[in-house]
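Quick one, probably user error.
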């Protein structure tokens, strides 16, 4: 059996290496498969890798993305309209694993597509393609026995979410079921860019660590390098979605020249975010304990 650990980098190992060797958090970048086409989405994903993203979060387009904001919803619908389907996800994962085997690729998907495909079959095909694991925003561990078994059998990370509303018991349950990192949603509500990250993000990270988590990455609301640096002072990773998708959006088909301009815009956003995470702990010497600052 081929497992993700044999084909691509593991998320926990990467986060630990960045913490130990570079004294910084990881930058996790999200884009959906298939927008505006499968081929061009691969070009966009490679742009993320080339300009500072440490972990790829690869979105599966879904017809009812209730937890996503308007930017990601628009891109997901565009991908579906262009014909993107689950098998394309595995193809893109495999291409990214060949292109950058040092960059873990996590697939972010609502549970229904996995259920329809079959949890064990999905885990098998994802591992065979070189994927690192799944982020499942609408699946809680106590309802995920099939996925826990499948991910265990195929050596995949399983990333579950916690929120400011999570109880201590819920945090412990989620941490115990998670492998790779815990995804801390810094705000209640759907994804999207904000003028500021939720003020409870730092406390949520602290509470999740107190529940036993080794790695906690924060998402929902990070839109620029300044915010990435703020979050990176206390989180093990900074997750960005809408701010990376927005530069690619279009109301219609793009010429090659127009697409190249979109990739240039994406490069600028990615480099700004990458600079942010790399400066997050710049005032502390490598290996030092960083005292988190309050996120405004």
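Nope, works fine. Designed sequence:
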């Amino acid at each position: 059996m081929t497992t993700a650990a044999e084909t691509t980098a593991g998320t926990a190992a990467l986060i630990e290496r960045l913490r130990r060797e570079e004294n910084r958090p990881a930058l996790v970048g999200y884009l959906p498969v298939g927008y505006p086409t499968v081929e061009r989405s691969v070009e966009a994903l490679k742009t993320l890798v080339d300009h500072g993203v440490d972990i790829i979060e690869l979105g599966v387009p879904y017809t009812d993305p209730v937890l996503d904001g308007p930017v990601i919803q628009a891109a997901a619908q565009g991908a579906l309209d262009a014909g993107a389907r689950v098998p394309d996800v595995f193809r893109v994962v495999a291409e990214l694993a060949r292109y950058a085997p040092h960059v873990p690729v996590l697939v972010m998907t609502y549970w229904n597509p996995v259920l329809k495909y079959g949890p064990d079959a999905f885990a098998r095909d994802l591992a065979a393609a070189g994927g690192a694991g799944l982020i499942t925003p609408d699946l809680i561990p106590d309802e995920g026995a099939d996925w826990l078994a499948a991910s265990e059998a195929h050596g995949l990370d399983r990333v579950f979410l916690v929120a400011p509303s999570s109880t201590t018991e819920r945090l412990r349950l989620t941490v115990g079921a998670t492998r790779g990192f815990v995804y801390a949603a810094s705000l209640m509500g759907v994804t999207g860019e904000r003028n500021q990250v939720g003020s409870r993000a730092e406390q949520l990270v602290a509470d999740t660590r107190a529940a036993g988590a080794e790695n906690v990455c924060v998402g929902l609301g990070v839109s620029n390098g300044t915010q990435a640096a703020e979050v990176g002072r206390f989180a093990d990773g900074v997750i960005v979605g809408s701010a990376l998708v927005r530069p690619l959006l279009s109301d219609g088909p793009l010429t090659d020249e127009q697409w190249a301009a979109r990739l240039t815009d994406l490069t600028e956003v990615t480099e700004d975010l990458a600079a942010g995470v790399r400066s997050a702990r710049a005032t502390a010497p490598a290996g030092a304990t960083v005292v988190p600052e309050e996120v405004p």
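The chain has one domain: 4-279.
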